[in-house]
Amino acid sequence: MQLEIITPEAKIFSGEATAVQFPGLDGLFQVLNNHAPVISSLKEGEVKVDLVNAVADAEDLPASVRVDEKNASVIYVKINGGVVEMSNNKIIVLAE
Q1: Please, which residues bridge with residue 36 across strands?
Q2: CB-CB neighbours of 46 under 10 Å
Q3: Cα separation of 61 and 45, whole Å?
Q4: Tens of pLDDT along 31-74?
Q5: Among 94, 90, 95, 93, which residue's Cα sits nearest to residue 37?
Q6: Radius of gyration of the chain (CA)
Q7: Minimal CB count within 10 Å: which of 27, 76, 77, 80?
Q8: Contacts of the segment 43-46: beta carbons below 8 A, 24+ positions apart
């Protein structure tokens, strides 16, 4: 799946993911490849991204992104809320 996480200031992340977990208003939820189309509001928390490939250089990532200490193929993106839309294996997160 193609994932983009965008804030009003900048594009935080763009890349391929196998699974993405979101902090929804009613709790955590996850989407996988070929998931049904969805639009949802997000609350403050972290978006967990299971990447197709491991992160090569964590120093190139913004401060709001951290790499899992045990698995370089997993990153966490800190958000203050927002909206997510998934359709046709493309996920767009408009984050605060």
Answers
A1: none
A2: 17
A3: 18
A4: 999 999 999 999 999 999 999 988 877 677 888 899 988 998 99
A5: 90
A6: 12
A7: 27
A8: 43/81, 44/79, 44/80, 44/81, 45/78, 45/79, 46/76, 46/77, 46/78, 46/79
CA atoms of 41 and 82, how far apart (whole Å): 6
Residue 4, both tokens: 């983009």
Instruction: Locate 70 and state its tokens.
Output: 């045990």
Domains, the chain: 2-95 (2.60.15.10)
4: β partners:
14, 92
- Residue from 45, 42, 47 nearest 19 by CA: 47
What pTM does this model have?
Answer: 0.91
